[in-house]
Design goal:
This protein is mainly alpha-helical. The chain has seven helices and no strands.
Length: 116
């Protein structure tokens, strides 16, 4: 990525595009005013949108671990519980597993007699 290019008095082409778009101008008109191809306008807007999205590195989701397949019907059954806690079903599943493992509750949760 190169250095920002001052464009139409804005600090960069991307900033100029955002300002012109905010004024309701079309991609073709913006491209003409800046002197670039319409596809470049679209590419710069897409790049700016990606830059605004949080990266995976900022995620609170653990990056280490193993994937576990959860049957669809079980996943669906947890949706309302996740919604009441304002978390995703994946987050709820991780929280449940963490608590059960940390507090040594496997026998209590399963109640399958395997501990005896």
């Amino acid at each position: 990525m190169g250095a920002p290019k001052i464009t139409l008095g804005y600090e960069s082409r991307t900033a100029a595009i955002a300002a012109l778009r905010a004024n309701g101008l079309s991609t073709a008109v913006i491209a003409d005013r800046i002197g670039i191809e319409p596809k470049t306008v679209t590419a710069l807007e897409a790049s700016a949108a990606r830059a605004r999205r949080p990266s995976h590195a900022q995620s609170t989701v653990p990056t280490l671990g193993r994937p576990v397949l959860v049957p669809f019907q079980d996943y669906a059954a947890l949706r309302s519980h996740a919604a009441r806690r304002a978390v995703t079903v994946d987050r709820l599943i991780r929280d449940i597993i963490e608590v059960v493992a940390r507090d040594d509750m496997v026998n209590a949760v399963l109640d399958d007699g395997a501990a005896s």
